[in-house]
Design brief:
Elements (H helix, E strand, L loop, with lengths): L1 H16 L29 H14 L4 E7 L5 E7 L7 E6 L7 H13 L5 H6 L1 E5 L4 H4 L38 H11 L6 E8 L3 E3 L2 E2 L2 E4 L8 H18 L7 E3 L9 H9 L2 E8 L16 H21 L17 E2 L3
Parallel strand pairs: 3-4, 3-5, 5-10, 8-9
Antiparallel strand pairs: 1-2, 2-4, 6-7, 6-11, 8-10
Helix pairs in contact: 3-9, 7-9
Bound molecules: zinc ion.
The site of zinc ion has 3 residues, from loops.
């Protein structure tokens, strides 16, 4: 019975993702990898395809500027896509794929960039400066690393891994800033632009649940005691905009991420060092891993990409129009921490 319900919920999710009318269901209840679903990495943008798309958009969009902020360990250029209308406007940074095996956030960021080129979003760009760093860890995303990946699950010609080529977790390097990818971000983005908000986009394991239901993702504000209270309040408001845009949709179900106070993590370190209101957003499931309970089958790609696009568009709009100032942060007091489903 339970399996039937899950299958029905999943079928509903596919219909919704396809954009036609259909039953709305919490797609968090869709199947995990389970050892038998196809996970083929060839349907994701390769690094080269990402760069080609960014350059195509740069040529098409007058308001978009593309900048190389540095190089990865293996020499791949790292890109910043920027829309800066007015230095006096508030500025938000969207960061994806510090962890190379968490790619659907980058797929969503690319969709978002394409949407920003359309007429309906020009008003948004008048009110907010938008910075996007997609795929900060291209070596990990391409599996071009100096350690073995042969036990990773996905098929499709390449493996994707969390770490950079030196097997370092970039999201534990925000204090020391040893790796070239982290240095590029800090030297040429964080210190160079007056950034007010940042959403750091990730993917978590596939088996997290809130209130007994698998989540489509989880969010968290800075949790270091050293963060300025006003910065933390900005983070909570950013989270409120995200929660209100995702959780009531029927296809989204968010939990509170369980995270520590280490400032080596961008959510904490960047909030303290630069006074930026940060938000961590962890989407459900990873594109590749050696652990089956972390990988999510590609059938879920549609709604997770949509979750990213919805998040980016909602926050950009709320900041541009000023409604973020009125965001109700009280949900943080009742939002349950997610837990891992045990079967
Ligand atoms: Zn991550």
């Amino acid at each position: 019975m339970r399996k039937t319900l899950a299958a029905a919920a999943f079928a509903g999710a596919l219909v919704v993702t396809a954009g036609t009318a259909g039953p709305v269901a919490a797609v968090g209840e869709g199947p995990g990898y389970g050892g038998n679903e196809t996970v083929n990495t060839s349907i994701l943008h390769s690094y080269d395809e990402l760069v080609t798309e960014l350059k195509t958009q740069d040529a098409r969009q007058e308001r978009l500027d593309l900048e190389v902020i540095g190089q990865s360990v293996k020499g791949r250029d790292l890109y910043l896509a920027k829309y800066i209308s007015n230095p006096d406007n508030p500025t938000i940074l969207y960061l994806t794929q510090q962890h190379g095996n968490e790619q659907l956030t980058t797929e969503g960021a690319l969709e978002f960039i394409k949407h920003l080129g359309t007429g309906k979003n020009q008003g948004v760009l008048d009110g907010v400066n938008i910075l996007v760093v997609p795929m900060l860890n291209p070596d990990g995303a391409m599996g071009d690393v100096d350690f073995p990946l042969e036990d990773y699950i996905a098929s499709g010609g390449r493996h994707l891994t969390r770490y950079n080529a030196n097997e370092v977790d970039l999201n534990r390097d925000h204090v020391a800033k040893v790796e070239p990818e982290t240095r590029a971000l800090h030297d040429n983005v964080m210190r160079k632009y007056g950034i007010d908000y940042m959403i750091d986009l990730h993917h978590q394991g596939a088996q997290s649940e809130r209130d007994g239901q698998l989540v489509s993702g989880s969010i968290l504000h800075p949790t270091t005691p050293n963060v300025d209270p006003a910065v933390l309040e900005g983070s909570k408001k950013l989270g409120a905009v995200v929660f209100d845009a995702i959780d009531p949709t029927g296809w989204g179900h968010l939990g509170k991420y369980v995270g520590g106070s280490a400032e080596t993590i961008s959510r904490n370190g960047i909030a303290v060092e630069y006074g930026i209101s940060t938000l961590l957003f962890e989407m459900r499931g990873m594109s590749d891993h050696y652990r089956e309970d972390y990988v999510l089958g590609q059938k879920s790609n549609g709604y997770l990409i949509k979750q990213t696009v919805t998040t980016l568009e909602a926050t950009a709009r709320a900041i541009a129009g000023g409604s973020i100032a009125d965001a109700d942060t009280s949900f943080w007091d009742t939002l349950a921490e997610q837990n891992t489903r045990s079967e």
